[in-house]
């Protein structure tokens, strides 16, 4: 299969970690978002003009990172990213969606480009905007997870942790004060020691610059 990805994309980080954890081999196809490659031929593959997109062996195209993660969980159930009871799985999804639905959609490249372009906002205003929504989201996330486990919901990585790891990359990039989020930085540091996670981080990608 092929993974269309951009090295610094936080949504791509989630999927890369899942593929690595589950031992699923894939070819990496870079899509440079900063050069507008998502609006070229790639748009025929993914009309949303975003990454990642996963092309299966039979040619089926999957888009939207959370949908891809759900597919991988169903097709490659071990190790599970949604352990526990149905209720516990819903709690994991809820925390994951705080990252995927509350933070990322208002903090992605399309939004920032619009703010600086059509809305004529300064770099300082854009940074403040980014930091505000990450603070709001991280505060909610930290309240939803368990307080005393190695990872967000237990001893192993879950769907929620994958989103957190990617968003922590963005938080550091935009200079977010992480002092109020010691629980999250601890989880992130512990996760980065896992080889499957380390191989999925932005700096480890072939298109990193």
Described by the principal axes of the CA atoms, the overall outline is globular
Tally of distinct domains:
2
Rounded to the nearest angstrom, the radius of gyration is 17 Å
Query: Strand order within the widest sheet?
Result: 2-1-3-4
The CATH class assignment of the largest domain is: Mainly Alpha
The second-level CATH architecture of the largest domain is: Up-down Bundle
The percent range for helix content is 40-55%
The low-confidence runs, each spanning 5 or more residues with pLDDT under 50, are none
Q: Beta-strand level of the residues, as a percent range?
A: 5-15%
Q: Describe the largest sheet.
A: 4 strands, mixed
Structural class: alpha+beta
Distance between the termini: 25 Å
- Briefly note the CATH topology name of the largest domain: Glutathione S-transferase Yfyf (Class Pi), Chain A, domain 2
Number of helical runs? 9
Number of strands: 4
Q: From N to C, what is the helix and strand string?
A: EHEHEEHHHHHHH
Question: Which whole number gives the mean pLDDT?
Answer: 96
Task: Characterize the structure shown.
Strands 2-1-3-4 form a 4-stranded mixed sheet, covered by helices on one side. The chain is built from 9 helices and 4 strands. By secondary structure, the protein is an alpha+beta fold. The radius of gyration is 17 Å and the shape is globular. The chain folds into 2 domains: 2-79, 3-Layer(aba) Sandwich (Glutaredoxin), CATH 3.40.30; 86-196, Glutathione S-transferase Yfyf (Class Pi), Chain A, domain 2 (Up-down Bundle), CATH 1.20.1050. Residues 85-209 form the GST C-terminal domain. InterPro entries: Glutathione-S-Trfase_C-like, Glutathione-S-Trfase_C_sf, Glutathione_S-Trfase, Glutathione_S-Trfase_N, GST_Zeta, GST_Zeta_N, Thioredoxin-like_sf. Residues 1-80 form the GST N-terminal domain. GO terms for molecular function: glutathione transferase activity; maleylacetoacetate isomerase activity; maleylpyruvate isomerase activity.
């Amino acid at each position: 299969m092929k993974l269309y990805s951009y090295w610094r994309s936080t949504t791509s980080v989630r999927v890369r970690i899942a593929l690595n954890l589950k031992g699923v081999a894939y070819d990496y196809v870079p899509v440079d978002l900063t050069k507008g490659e998502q609006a070229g031929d790639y748009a025929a593959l993914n009309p949303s003009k975003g990454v990642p997109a996963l092309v299966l062996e039979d040619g089926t195209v999957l888009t939207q990172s959370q949908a891809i993660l759900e597919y991988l969980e169903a097709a490659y159930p071990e190790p599970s990213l949604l352990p526990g009871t149905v209720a516990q799985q819903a709690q994991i999804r809820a925390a994951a969606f705080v990252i995927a639905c509350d933070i990322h959609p208002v903090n992605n490249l399309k939004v920032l480009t619009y703010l600086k372009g059509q809305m004529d906002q300064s770099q300082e205003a854009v940074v403040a905007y980014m930091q505000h929504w990450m603070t709001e989201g991280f505060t909610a996330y930290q309240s939803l997870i368990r307080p005393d486990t190695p990872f967000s919901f237990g001893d192993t990585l879950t769907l929620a942790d994958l989103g957190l790891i990617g968003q922590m990359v963005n938080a550091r990039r935009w200079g977010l004060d992480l002092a109020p989020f010691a629980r999250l930085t601890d989880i992130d540091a512990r996760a980065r020691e896992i080889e499957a996670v380390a191989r999925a981080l932005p700096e480890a990608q072939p298109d990193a610059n």
